[in-house]
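FW: tagging you since you asked about this chain on Friday. Here's the raw sequence from the shared folder, copied in full. Didn't touch anything.
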Amino acid sequence: MLAAAGTLLVATACETGEGVDLVLRGGVVATVDADDTMAEAVAIDDGWIVAVGSDADVEGYIGTDTEVIELDGRFAMPGFIEGHGHYMSLGNSKTILDLNNVANWDEIVQMVADAVAEAEPGEWIRGRGWHQEKWDQPPDPAVEGNPTHASLTAVSPDNPVLLGHASGHAGFANAAALALAGYDRDSAPPPGGELVRDEYGELTGLLRETAQRPVSGAFADSQLGRTAEEIEAQFRREVMLAAEEALSKGVTSFQDAGTGFGTIDRLREMEAEDALSVRLYIMVRRQSNEEMDDRLADYYMPSEGDDYLTVRSIKRQIDGALGSHGAWLLDPYKDMPTSVGLVLETVEDITGTAHVAIKHGFQVNTHAIGDRANREVLNIYEAVFDSAGGAENHRWRIEHAQHVHPDDIVRFAELGVLASMQGVHATSDFPWVPLRLGDTRAEERTYLWRSFLDAGVPINNGTDVPVEDIDPLASFRASVTRRTADGSIYYPEQNMTRTEALRSYTINNAYAAFEEQYKGSLEVGKLGDVVVIDRNILTVSDEDLADARVDLTIVGGVVRYER
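HL: got it, structure written out here
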């Protein structure tokens, strides 16, 4: 048994004859320690690692009560840490239409028609995951490359429909949903949003950024009649669905990019009941600066070891997504030269958040995708650090950092700002990034992993699920090959090495959450969070890497998933 700090407290289990709880042996074990040591076996007792080394080194830890997992040459590594995702949205996405792999707009319309046939009159139809740039044919008619709501309204005249874009930065609504939101021909968009119109001034149904909120609000209003029991049951179901999906992909810890106090309260109750099976690191989101100043002290929950819920950071969002023309750019979009993107939350408001965070010892993690957005966030951080007397290991982050002017990379390093990036976004976005930016800007400013690493900026990796599949192996593969679905390679000079990509998904993510003392590597005194993969992802060919699968996911020495 180990203390939280990893100090041996009692005689090892091998000395008592009972043995430790779990031993994995006969494999290729990537410890991800400071020297990237490779081993064969791991012993875990009471949730903590007590031995790492050769099979012979752990033999003495095996007793009559020990569960022994024969790796048979398979690859074991620290559990993947999802560095940026949306946990409750992942769970919710399992309860609505999955539009990630549709071929075209006509297929979506048919899916909605099928859902309407099973729905009650007036019942909302929701879905998420469509991306117009991935369809095999453009919609007809189209405005700015996107469909109009006429065909959707035709199959669902009485059921409101809201379909979220894969990025989460746009949505599509039919006539019934637009009406419930109070939108009509004369409506003005809310600040930070756009209502797309056709050549006659009519709403097409496409809602960019904050323009989605009135429709989402109308859906929320439709749910007000539910009982407290129904609300709680739905919440717990979504938590369970998110956990099942995460564990099946080898994710043992999940950094949630934005949750309000109410959801944190519910998750805290579940942690107290031992009802959480994935370790959560929560960023506080959608609370005013005044409310955070009043309440953050009650929600400061740093990691103390074997935790399943920690809270010590705040999420803000200065701009939107590149795909939906919402990223805030220094220069106009190539394919929309009248626009430099959208500012979703003002510099002044985020600056206020940063001062509140300094006061309460919270990390600040700001969504910034465009090069102007990244520069503005760096300016905010630098000014607030200066006013506080220096950075002093705050480990503040910029979430995504997708499109950065090369002059600003050194500023990340000088300020100690972490680049929280998602490897899979590069290969997913590659077909249309040059359309938005032009080839020169796409090459010089997007997904600059090598430039960041060479400048000494740690990268923590993730998927932004449900924007992408939560699969860390897909994001790992994208990080080291930058190979797209059609075989194209996205500016390979910015690739990570296999070891760098592995560290970006383990120890770097732990560091980015102030948890490197407890997780992110397989070392004595750390948590027994392990994932077993069917092949060595550090050495197999790029082609074989695409077929790698998670066989086992272990959290705190307990097997939570087995393929």
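FW: Confidence is low (pLDDT under 50) at residues 1-13.
HL: agreed, and The longest strand covers residues 251-259.
FW: great, closing this out.
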